[in-house]
Structures
1.
Amino acid sequence: MIERVRAVLVTADDTMLAIRRTRPGIPEYWVLPGGGVEPSDESREAALQREIHEEIAGRADTIRLLHTMETDEERQLFYLARIATWSFDDRTGPEFSAEGRGEYALEEVPLTLEGLDGIDLRPEEIAHVLRGAIGAGSLGVEASP
């Protein structure tokens, strides 16, 4: 089974970092930073840190596992994390140099119902989970010190 890890990366301004994907012939959509767990990763959390480093040259403090999605072929684990610094210009992931992959634009999205409603966050299931947690006030992200 393929395992993927992704993060709801919450900034000091209580926005979340999302990647706007633009591909030829497909309406734009947003995804959370992350990717596949590799055999060399010591843990899922280590895989998440590697992916965050590759995709946005950042480091996050993981708060907790937020949600798991599973099919027969794939398991995706979504973590809630705080991030203080990042640099999209210093990203190193192999997907950024692959031909035909389209554009990856990092954006800060308000971590509000209105912010989520303004983007097409995929998969829809994680967007639904985030809307529910925000609406209930149960996301559990404490303000940065």
2.
Amino acid sequence: MIHPLDDLPRRAILSGSEFEERIGYARAVVDGDRVHVSGTTGFDYTTMTISDDVVEQAEQCLRNIGSALAEAGCTFADVVRVRYLLPDRADFEPCWPVLRRCFGEVRPAATMMVCGLADPRMRIEIEVDARRPATAGRPASSVSPPSE
């Protein structure tokens, strides 16, 4: 069966992060009905600042991801896979309430990994994969990123 979005070209979504240009990647890539959002940290890309607090970083990660998903025509309700990357496993549990607000009803496949991140200020990085809806007229999701 051919999906209505299969003939759409691959397109990159950029957030304006200086890292995208310096390293050579996109915040997200839309490929047909698939959306792949790169590992996203807690940087506020408009000011290039990052909080010291891991929960605030998780909230900013989700705002950044939510913007990329929206530009791709998705919401958090369309996320099928999420990966959490943290240098310190003890930082994961404090983030659970924030993560649950976005993913608690969606229930994507999920993995948490302990690993080093590119900048010592980064305490969490989140990566998601989503599937774009085939119809634009589907009901809006109640799942949204944390507010400012």
